[in-house]
Amino acid sequence: MTAAPEQFPAGVDERDLLRALLDNSPDHIYFKDRQSRFIKSSAAQALQFGMATPDGLVGKSDFDVFSDAHARPAFEDEQAIIRTGLPMVGKIERETWMDGRPDTWALTTKMPLRNRDGEIIGTFGITKDISDLKEAERRIGEVHRQLVEASRLAGMAEIATNVLHNVGNVLNSVNISAGLIVDRLRASKLKGLARAVGLMDEHAGDLGDFLMRDTRGKLLPGYLRELAQALEAEQTAIAEELGLLARSVDHIKEVVATQQSYAGASRVVESLKVDELLDDALRMNVSSLTRHKVEVVKQVPDLPALTLDRHRLLQILVNLISNAKHAMRGAPPDHSACITLGAALLEGAGGRVLRITVADNGEGIAPENLVRVFVHGFTTRSNGHGFGLHSCALAAREMGGTLSAHSEGAGQGATFVLDVPIDPQEGDR
Ligand SMILES: Nc1ncnc2c1ncn2[C@@H]1O[C@H](COP(=O)(O)OP(=O)(O)OP(=O)(O)O)[C@@H](O)[C@H]1O
Ligand SMILES: [Mg+2]
């Protein structure tokens, strides 16, 4: 290396520059012989090795301070550089210490050291301590893991609230069915049968005579016939209610199962009549609809049975009907609350689409809220949660469909439109 003499101020030469560098650089700078022993080093390098001055380091090697785990590969790197003449640039190394102090991290570049004749007589290198950087990296990793975990938990919480919300919707109708069955059993005509049998037992010895002549006995056959009819009707009604109950429980089971396989992979489709689907959804809201005297109009043409995801549709409809009913609150007493359910099979560009509409003449939606109603947590009801429509929109998307809200504004009622594609191969049958 020859520098133009005018570049150096008077009294300064290359050796002064080298000394300034070695005395002041915070990096570890070193020159080593072919056996990887120190020839010269920076003050910082000497300090790292516990030497007050670089002179103390001369003749020592990495094996004097580092444990084998670091000293050995570092030695081999240097021997490779001496053998091949190729530098080693920007290697990140973990430094392990013989005295047991915590590991440190370093960024190292090493080069062959040549004499004037170009022969390799050793190596020289610069090592920067990047322990702080590594520690920051570790912390970032940690924070990242915590974030991932937090969002996983938040996701699980959202799934849980969805399940609870949709199960809660249906539990109401389970309660009603169970209550009706209990009432019917309590009022059962079965007791009449017991009384009639008791009467016959009392007259076991003269049953023929009792039936022919006694005023009560003569009425008994007619009474038994009527009783049989009443019991049969009772049984049919209870069986029907039990059927409804079973369907609600089945829906609850599906709501839970669907959410468990949340990725949306699970899609249980079955052939179903849209009309019956709407009836089921209404039934799951029936108590509050009758309580609030809401009239329901169904405008559903006779559609063929379609292959659809029954439980996702049911979940959406139950929510939409429940919302429509809530939208009637605050209406004047003379307001006749009405929900209109519609269904149609449309021929779209991408194939057939089932469109179901739930329209109400309730409080309506202000224009600025039309999009927000689908945001998780958005609610204008004092005891609302803002989960319903969000989970409906998700369910619609999982079926490849869409859910949209329409309203002319406050006081103008609202219409929700659900479009679900019908699989061409799996269409009606
Ligand atoms: N039919 C409707 N008419 C007017 N506003 C509606 C209607 N449906 C939904 N909204 C508005 O959208 C909001 C969000 O509805 P969403 O079903 O998501 O939650 P919520 O009904 O408030 O509470 P919950 O989570 O218990 O269902 C409602 O609070 C209401 O402001
Ligand atoms: Mg709701």
Molecular structure report:
47% of the residues lie in helices and 20% in strands. The chain has 429 residues and is an alpha+beta fold. It has 2 domains: 16-131 and 174-231, 2-Layer Sandwich (Beta-Lactamase); 267-426, Histidine kinase-like ATPase, C-terminal domain (Heat Shock Protein 90, 2-Layer Sandwich), CATH 3.30.565. A 5-stranded antiparallel sheet has the order 2-1-5-4-3. A 5-stranded mixed sheet has the order 7-9-10-12-11. It has a two-stranded antiparallel sheet with strand order 6-8. The radius of gyration is 43 Å and the shape is elongated. The structure holds adenosine-5'-triphosphate and magnesium ion (MG). Magnesium ion binds next to α10.
Task: Tell how many strands the DSSP assignment holds.
Answer: 12
The CATH superfamily of the largest domain turns out to be PAS domain
The residue ranges in which pLDDT falls below 50 over 5 or more consecutive positions are none
Count of the separate structural domains: 2
User: What are the secondary-structure elements, in order, as H or E?
Assistant: HEEHHEEEHHHHEHHEEHEEHEE
Strand content: 15-25%
Describe the main β-sheet briefly: 5 strands, antiparallel
Q: What spatial order of strands do you see in the largest sheet?
A: 2-1-5-4-3
N- and C-termini, Cα separation = 90 Å
CATH architecture of the largest domain: 2-Layer Sandwich
Look at the structure and give the mean pLDDT. 89
CATH topology type of the largest domain: Beta-Lactamase
**What is the alpha-carbon Rg in Å?**
43 Å
What structural class do helix, strand and pairing data support?
alpha+beta
Total helical elements: 11
